[in-house]
Each structure stands twice: as C-alpha cells, then as structure tokens.
Amino acid sequence: MRETVLMKGEMATRVIVTTEAGTEVLDEEDEVLESYPDDQHATVLARFLGQGWEVEEDGP
Questions:
Q1: What superkingdom heads the lineage (predicted)?
Q2: How many CB atoms lie within 10 A of CB 11?
Q3: Tens digit of pLDDT for each residue in 38-50?
Q4: H or E segment to which residue 45 belongs
C-alpha cells in the first residue's frame, strides 16, 4: 500500500491511496473523489502536483 497526502492552502487536502485493489483519491472528509481499478498513483500524483498541490506526507 502507498499513501500520499497532498495539501493546497490551509484547508484543502487530498489523499491518494493505492492498494492491490487499485488507486483512490479521497478528500479531507474521506469521501472518494476518484477511483481506478489499477495502480495510477504516479499519474494522479503528477496531475495534482501540476495543479499546485504540495506533498505533505508520502509513504507506504
């Protein structure tokens, strides 16, 4: 499993979680915003970084 926490400003948070079941993007209330059936972690992370999000935490 890999989990990356992204921040934008003081309140906006996104969490990218990748497991054997695929990749999900969650908001600050743990609501699923995006879901992929395979590992899309690097692609989604690159997109968010390109939109100005910053990595707060990244790890297994």
A1: Bacteria
A2: 7
A3: 999 999 999 999 9
A4: helix 41-50
